[in-house]
Amino acid sequence: GPVLRWFQGHLQRCLGAVRYRLRERCRVSLSAPPGRPPTLRIVPCSDYVCCHIAMAVRLIPAIPLGDALYLTALPPDGPPRGALWGLNASRQEQRLLGWVKERAPASSCHLKCLQILKGLRDLRGQGLQEPLGSQWGRVLSSYVLKTALFSLLLRGPLEAWDERFLVERLEDLVLFLRDCLRKQVLMHLFLGNVSLPEAVALPRFLREATPVNLLAAFDGLTLDSVAFQLVNTWIQAPHIIRMYSCPRYLRPPAGP
After folding, report:
1. Per-residue pLDDT tens for 102-136?
2. How many CB atoms neighbour CB 15 within 10 A?
3. Domain ranges of the chain
4. What is the CATH number of domain 90-245?
């Protein structure tokens, strides 16, 4: 809370400094709900012809640790057990993606698999009753899905991720996640992982860290329920896409 208030104060002062200079091109505003990271909204002026796309950028406080690693402030509904800061290793993720891209087929479908699974997760979450509805998105967070994908990719062979095998690889990803949920174990991709390719140079801080189980914070009953719903979502994927993609099911936008 104190960090967010401090951060928002600095953002408001920065916004005042740039708003006048940008007045002919766009309108810039800052929304800061209590206890949530602030969002910068950029709306182009109607006569500014280069771009007519409005943007909303979530701004998150971060503390640099060196070696392109950062601690980022977690929202109040982030991981339980009192965790206030998370580790951001996006540079290392990019290195691993580059390593995969060099060895996978040019038409590899691994990123499409991740996008489709995220979409199914979001659509299915709209029809779940509480408390599973709120637990669903926390257990199957984007980072958990991404970690499962990378873990499966590293098992190889990468040739099997050619786009013509999209459905088979997507099913493999769903079943791999189901097994992780049932076993209640999905290890962090970088913290203490000694099996990563040597080409993905990891900072010493990551190599020597204690391995972390991303599912350790959730009880077995919750993970079993999510595992069951995940497989059910995959089986009913065409029906779920048709049903929850209808306009009457779409959630209203968060803001103008």
Report:
1. 999 999 999 999 999 999 999 888 888 888 888 89
2. 15
3. 1-59, 90-245
4. 1.10.1410.40
